[in-house]
Amino acid sequence: MTFHAKPAVRYFARPALLAIILPLLCISGLYDIIFLHNTAVSIFCGFDVVQNVYFLAVIIGINIISIFIYAVYWKELHEKCFAKIKICKYEIIWKCVLRKKRVIKIDNCRFIGVESEKSFNGPDYPFIYFSSSPYPTEFSHKINKINNSDKFIKFWYTDRLADYLLAHLSKEKTGGLQYYCNRKKVERRYSKQRSH
């Protein structure tokens, strides 16, 4: 069965990010093609040097901003927007556009748990991870720092994915996930009692 990122990310964040990033890269590239060569030549030849230096600084600034935004997107948001995970009978397959496909055999996957990424609000944004070894403690609340590999796969937590894993995989593998789900249920019950 195949699972995608949360619908809010897939249907709203992905188009919004692409609508910002692609035009910014195209505009900066267009400016480079049209103006950079002529501006550099006119500075070299001594024509209106001050105005051309300012214009060159603006072009370079736009390029730096474009590269920075694209790098942040690529590092932090690309996988969250475009990744999908497929749980098969014998393997777990992670795919993402422009990234290498990762596969873990179910027999080699010994740990399935949940780890939260720390945000400005504290530990937030839970991820389900599939690993052949225990989760490394030095990456506590820093799961985004671990890259997906053929021994470790991470994917945004969804209730649908968690329910499927708990129903179809052995309890020995899903102990950490079961603990997280139980804790979530208790927290929901407690918050309902407090609101009444």
In short:
The chain contains four helices and seven strands, in the order E-H-H-E-E-E-E-E-E-H-H. Helix content is 53%, strand content 20%.
Describe the structure.
The chain has helices at 7-45, 49-82, 159-168, 175-195, and strands at 2-4, 84-87, 91-95, 102-105, 111-119, 122-131, 152-156. The protein has 196 residues and is an alpha+beta fold. The strands form two sheets. The chain has a four-stranded antiparallel beta sheet with strand order 1-2-3-4, with helices on one face. It has a three-stranded antiparallel beta sheet with strand order 5-6-7, with helices on one face. Helix 1 (7-45) runs antiparallel to helix 2.
Q: Quick check: average pLDDT?
A: 82
Number of strands: 7
What is the helix/strand order? EHHEEEEEEHH
Assign an overall shape. elongated
Strand order of the largest sheet: 1-2-3-4
The fraction of residues assigned to DSSP E strands is 15-25%
CA radius of gyration is 23 Å
- State the distance separating the first and last CA atoms: 39 Å
Instruction: Please bin the fraction of helical residues.
Output: 40-55%
What's the helix count?
4
Biggest sheet statistics? 4 strands, antiparallel
Structural class: alpha+beta
Instruction: Note poorly predicted spans.
Output: none
